Structure formats: C-alpha cells, structure tokens
Amino acid sequence: MPSHLPQPPAPQRLSLGRIVPATCILLLLHFGQDVLRPIAIAAILSLVIAPLVRKLARTGMGRTAATLLSVLLVAVGVVWMSAVLAIQLVAVAGDLPRYSAAITSKVQSIREVTVRPFERLEAEFRGVAPQARPASAPAPVPTGAQRSRSAAAAAAAAAAAAAAATPAVPGDPVPVQIRQAPPTAGDIVSKLLSSVWGPVGEAGIVLVLLVFVLLEHESLSDRFIRVIGVARLGPTVQALSETAEGVSRFFLSQFVVNLTFGVVLGAGLWVIGIPHAALWASIAALLRFIPYVGVLGAAALIAVFGAAVDPGWSLVLWSLGLFAALELLVANVVEPQVYGHSTGLAPLAVIVSALFWGAMWGPVGLLLSTPLTLCIVVVGRHVRALEPFAILLTEGPGLNAGQRFYQRALSGNTALIIQDARSYMRRATFAKYCDRVLLPGLSLAGSDLRLGHIDEQQSERIKKVIVRVTEELAGTRPDRRAARRRRATVSLASANVGAQLRQMREANLGPWQGELDVPPQSIVLCFGFGTERDDLLTELLVRALRQDAIDARSASLSDPQDPARADKSVLVGTAFLTYPTEDALAQWRTVAAEMRAALPDALIATIRLPLDEAAASEDTVQGDVNLILHSYAEAEAFVLQARKPT
C-alpha cells in the first residue's frame, strides 16, 4: 500500500462501555417484566386505539369522553370473548369422558403402526440370536464363619416374630396416619379466585395505564421529543408518526384478517362435524397472532380434538385439509393484498424476535414480539443508536445494488454477479444496469482505492471482474478466427480496463468498429480524453447503446491521428463527450470547440453522472454542448427517440 495514502481506520471492537449497558437492559427486561409488561401492552394498545379516539373526538365528543368510551369498548370486547371461550372450555371438559374410548383406540392404532413393528423386529432378533446364559456353578460349601452368621440371623428373625406376637403394652407409641380433609366449596372458590386474580389484576392495570396513556398522548410525545433533543425535532417527529402509523396499520389489518380467518374456519369445522367449532376457531384466530408457531399449534389442537371425537380418521383429515387450505389461501393471497409487507420485517427476524420476547416475557412476549420489534425497527431508521437493529431485522437487503456488486467483485465472485445481472436485465437494459449497479459499485471501488482501503491485488481482481462482466452482458460474439485473434492480441494485464474492453471489441469488429458503408449521421460517437476514467465510461456507453442496435463507436484523444477519419465526419449524427472534471475543464472546452467545428451537423452531448464528485459545475459546461444528460438510460432514450421517423 503506498505510504502517501491514508491508512484505513482501525476496526471497532466491543468495549466495556457497550457490553455493560446491553447486559443491564437484558437483565431489566427479564427481571422487571412484571412492571414493563403492562406498560408495553398499554403503549401498543394506545397506538392501536388512538385512531378510534381521534375519530370520536372529531364528532364533538371531548378527549376524555372519547378515551373512556374507546377503552370501554375494548374492555367489553375482551370480557365477552373471554366469557365465550370459558363457556366453551367448560363444555369441552364435560364431554371429555365420552371421548376416552376414541382416544384409547387412536393411541392403540398409532402404537400398532409406530411401536409394534420395532417390538416384533426386536423379538425376531432375540429368537435368531438368543443371549448366552452363564453355566450354573456348584453351590459353594459354607465355611464355619458363614454358618455362624446364618445362625445369628435366624435367631434375630425368631426374636422379631416373637415380639410381633406379643400384645401391645399400654404406654407404647401408636402409629398415626394423617389424612387431609376433602376441600370444601369455599376452598375451591378461593383457589379459583387466586388462580385468576393474577391475569385479571394485570388486565386491570393495563386498562388503567391505557386510559392515562391515551389522555396524555400529546404530552408524552412532547416529553419524548425533549429527551431525544430539540435539535433532532424533524427526525424524531417522523419516527414517532411512522411508528404509530405502522403499528396501527399492522394490528388493524392483522385483526381483520384473523377475525375473518376464525369465522370462515368455524363455519367450515361446523359443516364437517367438529363439536364446539366456535371454540377451536377462536383459539386458531388468537394463535395466529403468534408468528409461525401459532399456526402450527392451532392445527395440532384441531387435529387432536378431531381424533378424539371420531372413531375413524376421516374427521382428522378433513379438519387438517380445511385448515391447511384456508391458511395457504390467507398467507399467500389475502395477507399480501391486505397489508403485504407492511411490517417490513424479515421472516427470520420475526422468528428470532418471537424466541427472544417469548424467553423474556413468556406467552405475552410471543404475542407482543412482532409489534415490539416493529417499533424498534421503525425508530432505528431515525435514531442512530438503534440503526443496526433496523438493518438486521428488515426484509430489505443489507446492501444496495452497487455495494453488493463491489463486495462480490472484491471477493472475485464473478459468477454470482453475472447471475444477478442477467436477472436484473430481464426487466431492464444494460444502460440501466450501469446506472444502478455497475457505476455505483465502481465509484465505491475508486473511493476505497484513493483512500488506500484496498490493495493492488484486490484492484486487479476488480478489474478482471469488470472485464468479464461487461463482456458477458454486452459483448459481441465473434467467430472462432476472431476469438483466436483476440486472445493473441489483447492482454488482460493492462491497467486500463476501458482500453482492454475497446481492444476486445475492435478485435471482433475491426479497427473502425464496424462497417463504413452506412447512412450519413447514423453513427453515435463516444469520445474520451484517454484517461482510465474516460476510457471506461466511454466503452460502457458504447456497449449500452449497441445493445439497442445503435451503431455506437468510440474514439479517444490519445488515439493516433488518421487523416482518413476526416472524410467520415458526415457519418456521425450524435457525439457524446465524457463530462469534464474540474481540473481538466480548460482542455475539455478546447476539445469540445474542435469537435463542434469538425462535426458541424452533429449534436454534441455529455453525461454528468450523479456519483462523479470531481465533476465540474453544469453552469460552466452548458454553453459548450447542446445537451447535458444525467444517466446512461437518458442517453439511450434520447438516441432511440431521435432515430424514430418523424
């Protein structure tokens, strides 16, 4: 690495100042769940109910009345659903004894299929290869000491038998057995109340917190903005609004989808003959709020109950078929249409978040895993400290197209680059591929090369990747003789990638890069100044235009003078000059004036690429050309439009 270039910064390591706060946060989430869990539930419910509160407030109802009415509606809905589920569960518990015979029969049939074959196989193996038994040894003759111990043991046994036969003397201890009294009705009620008091009490705390959060919604937002800092007022307000909108939209759409799923599933289960269809449909709708795992659990419960109520297997198969068909329809057709990828979370991130929050907060954490993770992702897009979570958890790619090209070029993964490029070019042209992928990736490579972040070996690897990718995507297909001539005359050891690509093209098309017997003003000339930058940009533009059957050819200021070219100026209809850099502006203006004089009938244009940081200002260039474009796709569209018959 050259000494005059700046050294790359040292890699950041995990410091104690980052590990300790992260550990404290995890401990706080786990051991403080009794306090944090109701707050989280109330905060998320407030985001869901806030649109209803605003709509009621617009009708003329006060903020307090709208809040209380909204919370009351939610509480009534939860109590009604809980009562229906409780009644159904009591009915199922009462019917369980009737299903014991079917359950026993199913267990036996499953055992016959799964366990019995292995037992028979084991018995056959034992019959073929019986275990060797040790030969019986003659009984040893007892010694004198052994005979003495046997006599003592017999005497002790006789004494114990005599003591047992002796009647008990008053005053001796009597064995006592303690038996618990059967529970009374009061004990049963007390135990039942103690078991339900925890969830009911937490639900009451959540409702109280929900009321106050909704009443002080604006005040809490202002305090949060003040904590973040007034200097970041714009990003903070945007983060809050996007979080509220995203969570509200997600929960509302998910609630509608799951409710519809439960209604349709309940009707289907009732039609095929599953008892208590409303109960299992409600449980399935609730379990669908738990990502991925909930669907499997609901299907397993319905299958087990179907096996319990039916002596055969038809009810199990019908119920599983109905559930699978409905789930596939909802997951692949309905949900993408209703809310699509509104969460923006990657599938793996959803599973990991469910595992994390489930381990932290149990079943409540499973239900809240998706909205909590969604809040972290949305806030992470605007808060720098949480930005890594937004990158890791979102479904979008971690790198953009240019960064991905540069990363794969550094590793020399040309095959994967070409595969992605061919997939991209099924819906776009090579010009757009250059604008969106190739040129941004080369800009990153050039920046790292100037800063000394890549060495010469990596630079050469990137150049070879560029040559191969360009030839694969926009290369000409020569015959065998031309291919042998190209391999003999073109060297890949040259430092100028654009010159290599031009030599390859000229080896296939000839030194004039095509026929000279063409109509006037039919050639598009792309002209550079002989630098490595200009040669590459010129060659990529030529190949992009030739993909659309445009007779594009290139020339360079470093080309040797050929008097025969002066007679061919009438063939050029459009000339593209590479956009000048600030330090080469004077030379560029001189060449532009000479080109305008040499090609009086041609349109002179230039392309200022958005990633060219060293480019001169457009105001200083505009008077020397007829047109300034800003991408290869614009140049392609301009030339194609100019060639249409008027």
Write the layout of secondary structure elements.
Layout: H1 16-31, H2 33-58, H3 63-95, H4 100-114, H5 116-128, H6 144-165, H7 185-215, H8 217-228, H9 233-272, H10 277-287, H11 293-309, H12 314-338, H13 347-361, H14 363-380, H15 387-393, H16 401-410, H17 414-424, H18 430-451, H19 456-474, H20 480-489, H21 497-509, E1 523-528, H22 532-546, E2 552-556, E3 572-578, H23 585-598, E4 603-607, H24 618-621, E5 627-629, H25 632-642
Helix pairs in contact: 2-3, 2-7, 2-9, 2-14, 3-7, 3-10, 9-10, 9-12, 9-14, 10-11, 11-12, 13-14, 14-15, 16-18, 17-19, 18-19, 19-21, 20-21, 21-22
Overview of the molecule:
By secondary structure, the protein is mostly helical. Among the domains are: 37-102 and 201-216, no CATH class; 249-340; 343-396, no CATH class; 399-474, Methyltransferase, Methionine Synthase (B12-binding Domains), Chain A, domain 1 (Orthogonal Bundle), CATH 1.10.1240; 516-646, 3-Layer(aba) Sandwich (Rossmann fold). Helices cover 67% and strands 4% of the residues. The protein is built from 25 helices and 5 strands. It has helices at residues 16-31, 33-58, 63-95, 100-114, 116-128, 144-165, 185-215, 217-228, 233-272, 277-287, 293-309, 314-338, 347-361, 363-380, 387-393, 401-410, 414-424, 430-451, 456-474, 480-489, 497-509, 532-546, 585-598, 618-621, 632-642, and strands at residues 523-528, 552-556, 572-578, 603-607, 627-629. A 5-stranded parallel sheet has the order 2-1-3-4-5, sandwiched between helices. Strand 1, helix 22 (532-546) and strand 2 (552-556) form a beta-alpha-beta unit. Helix 9 (233-272) runs antiparallel to helix 12 (314-338), helix 10 (277-287) runs antiparallel to helix 11 (293-309) and helix 19 (456-474) packs parallel to helix 21 (497-509). The longest helix has 40 residues, at 233-272. The model is unreliable at 1-14 and 479-494 (pLDDT under 50).
